[in-house]
Write a structure and sequence with these properties.
Layout: H1 4-32, H2 50-68, H3 74-96, H4 98-112, E1 118-119, E2 124-128, E3 136-141, E4 144-150, E5 157-159, H5 161-166, E6 178-182, E7 185-199, E8 202-212, E9 220-222, H6 224-227, E10 232-236, E11 239-243
Parallel strand pairs: 4-9, 5-8
Antiparallel strand pairs: 1-2, 2-11, 3-4, 3-7, 6-7, 7-8, 10-11
Helix pairs in contact: 1-2, 2-3
Length: 244
């Protein structure tokens, strides 16, 4: 009776069990210590190097178990080491560059869809310059979709009469007593307070604004009183980034 095949199958079985055990431990440890929470479980103690450690540890356990319980052909062993080592390197490199790849993807999406606010999940929003050279974006005022142009030359947020009405503002009862400079010259606007203005993941509350008279303004403006409530904004090439 040839015990070789049986030993080989046993080696593969043990290697698979070891690999599954390490992965199961990793899942339990990950759930016990969610990233970014700062909490540490009394059962498991991990740090930010978990993904690399799990990948390399699992591969090492599988290889050692296979070698210990089988009679390997060393050429095959060398090929396997190169293969799994390469995969481990790709895992580590991919994890290390994940944030950079995400940033490239967000910039690409913003460039392909001008007017679309691309959020990165951490409070930063990217907007691409449109064909006219403006930073225009679709946001919302009190839940109503609103098309804005970001204008650093405007001191205040200014809504068109139509956008204000869509947001539930009674434009016919406003006091249009505030002079404003528009592309059509000096106009008159009414002061209001916006409960909630949103662009992507950014939301500003209780924001002073102006409502232009009907026909005085083509596009609602986001001015400096809104931008100054952010932690920062910057322009790089054809993209603008707003940071909460």
């Amino acid at each position: 009776m040839n015990a070789g095949p049986n030993l080989s199958r046993l080696a593969r079985t043990i290697a698979g069990i070891a690999l599954l055990a390490v992965c199961a431990w990793a899942v339990v440890a990950y759930l016990a210590n969610p990233p970014g929470t700062g909490s540490r479980s009394t059962l498991v103690s991990l740090d930010s190097s978990l993904p690399q450690a799990v990948a390399l540890g699992a591969i090492a356990v599988a290889l050692i178990a296979s070698l210990a319980l089988s009679r390997p052909r060393w050429r095959s062993v060398g090929a396997a080491v190169l293969l799994w080592g390469g995969l481990a390197g790709l895992l580590v490199a991919g994890y290390a560059s994940w944030s950079d790849l995400g940033a490239v993807g967000r910039r690409t999406l913003a460039a392909l869809a001008p007017g679309y606010a691309v959020s990165d999940g951490s409070g930063a929003v990217t907007i691409a310059r449109d064909s006219a050279g403006h930073f225009a974006v679709t946001g919302s005022v009190d839940g109503a979709p609103t098309r804005f142009m970001i204008d650093t030359g405007a001191s205040s947020v200014v809504l068109t009469s139509a956008d204000a009405a869509n947001a539930g503002i009674a434009t016919d009862t406003l006091d249009y007593s505030r002079p404003v400079q528009t592309a059509n010259g000096v106009g008159w606007a009414a002061p209001v307070t916006i409960d909630r203005l949103s662009i992507g993941d950014l939301t500003l509350q209780n924001l002073p604004a102006l409502v232009a008279r009907p026909g005085a303004l083509d596009t609602s403006l986001i001015g400096m009183n809104a931008l100054n409530q952010l932690s920062g904004f910057s322009v790089s090439g054809n993209t603008m980034t707003l940071t909460r």
